Amino acid sequence: MNRPQHHTIVISDLHLSDAEPIHENNPLWKKFRRKEYFIDKDVAAFLEKLDAELEAPIELVLNGDIFDFDSVMSVPKHGEFSFSSNEKHRGLNSEEHKSEFKMMCILRDHSHLCMAFQNFLQKGHKIIFTIGNHDLELHWPKVQQALINAIVPNNVHKEQVVICEWFYLSGGDTLIEHGNQYDPYCLCANPINPLVRKGRKDIVRLPFGNLANRYMVNGMGLKNPHHDSSFIMSGLGFMIYFFKYELRIQPFLLVTWLLGALRTLIVYTKEAWLPPLKDPLTLTKRIEEIAKRSQATANQLLMLRAFHAHPASYNPFMVLRELWLDRAILLMVIVWGCFQIFSTTNVVVEVSYWWFLVPLFICLPFFAWYSQGVNSDVRAHAKAAESKISPVGRAFGVSRIIQGHTHRLGHRFIDSVEYINTGAWTQLFHDVECEKPYGRKPFAWIKPTSGNHRTSNLYEWKNGEFLPIGMGDKSAAEKLA
Q1: Helix and strand tally (H, E) in the chain?
Q2: Local structure of 74: helix, strand or coil
């Protein structure tokens, strides 16, 4: 098979959302989402450098989570459509017209980047979007059209833009997918038919991670949803963080967490088992269309689908544990049990109310031991996903697999399959004040060579240059987010 003689560039996890306004009374509230920290100029300069140094056409693959619908907090101000109080404070639901509104808000606040995409397409290059977990609402036709209208004025270069449901096969030798389909917390339960009917409304069924981001993290203004250590903490770590920041800025964080966790659990439980909206008479055609956009065959698509993880809804305890509700339930059981012991004792012998604390103090060390020993499964599932790289590569007949999703850079061989994870471009900070930025702007670069072969490597965009990241470079590893 002849390999294409063009360069393929893969980046992922830009997490573009709407800009957060400055809150004068609370300047740290979602400060990391202000427009001054947008990465638009970096991406635009990166695209200009690609065009200047590489021969056209360039195949640019934007590999999932390019847009972050879950973090959009804007709502219409002029009665365009109705929305609930919860949507006002936690973000709009995933109905088509609401997803379209969110897309328009993102495109409005990132107009500079849209212009950069326009210029890139006008130079004869190609842009492929693969859908990740945070931009699942790209499945809506009106949302896709809004995107195309923004980067392809007058549809002049429309054929150079492709939107793939969850994967893309580049040059017959490289499988590119966001990677969330191997994560039980973040996978789209049915990427072939992602829509469900909820009451009288059609919605995109969102995974657990998206709902937790929407109903919990959107109400926690100091926690960056793309920096997992800001909200996945040990009990001790949470206490330190709470007294350093939250007690002063958001003293009722525990109430926000509990209400958000319960809403996440209820909504996820209700939606997880809804049947997908699909037409059996057109299912074969739908599969063929998805495969064609992804440059694969229908058999390859179905084979890849078989490797996907089971949603977290198959194991409710996983969900309770990630929401910290298992610890909340255990604590309530301990308090209830201690009250029962005290009440029973008081019937036989009248005792002081202080005796209620005796069994409570006896049980609290056990609670602390249990809480400290519970760790998030996010990293474990990321490692489990990597165990599928080799069998997926063999089954798909590719020598290279490129993913994102975990925000953790990686480049190595897993058995005979070359594996690259492109990390994330989203700006991260070590501190709530956003004075200590960190992170790289990595990308995978697949180069044509003489003969029937392509080579690839992991690079970073830094100081206007393409700098290689060596295979196995431990400094490339970033925290999950």
Answers
A1: 16, 16
A2: coil
What gap in Å lies between CA 410 and CA 471, rounded to an integer? 8
Domain positions in the chain are 7-254+266-316+375-476, 325-373
Mean of pLDDT values over 46-66: 93
Side-chain-side CA neighbours of 383 within 13 Å: the count stands at: 4
Least confident of 12-16, 69-73, 285-289, 392-396: 392-396
**Half-sphere exposure of residue 335, counting CA atoms within 13 Å on the CB side?**
6
Q: Measured over all CA atoms, what is the biggest interatomic distance in the chain, rounded to whole angstroms?
A: 91
Highest mean predicted confidence (pLDDT) among 23-27, 84-88, 425-429: 84-88
Whether the bond into 57 is cis, omega within 30 of 0: yes
For the domain 7-254+266-316+375-476, what is the CATH superfamily, name and number? Metallo-dependent phosphatases (3.60.21.10)
**CA 253 to centroid of chain Cα atoms:** 23
The encoded tokens of residue 399 equal 């020598």
- Spatial separation of the C-alpha atoms in residues 296 and 195, rounded to whole Å: 23
Backbone angles phi, psi at 215, to 5 degrees: -85, -20
pLDDT in tens, 276-324: 999 899 999 999 999 999 999 999 999 999 999 989 888 888 888 888 8
Q: How far apart are the first and last CA of the chain?
A: 38
Contact status, residue 400 vs residue 174, Cβ threshold 8 Å: yes
Instruction: Round to whole Å and give the CA distance between 314 and 260.
Output: 21
- Strand 161-164 and strand 58-63: the pairing is unpaired
* Range 139-166 average pLDDT: 91
Residue 40 near residue 203, CB atoms below 8 Å: no
91 to each of 155, 210, 212, 257, how far by Cα in Å?
Answer: 31, 11, 12, 16
* One-letter identity of residue 315: N
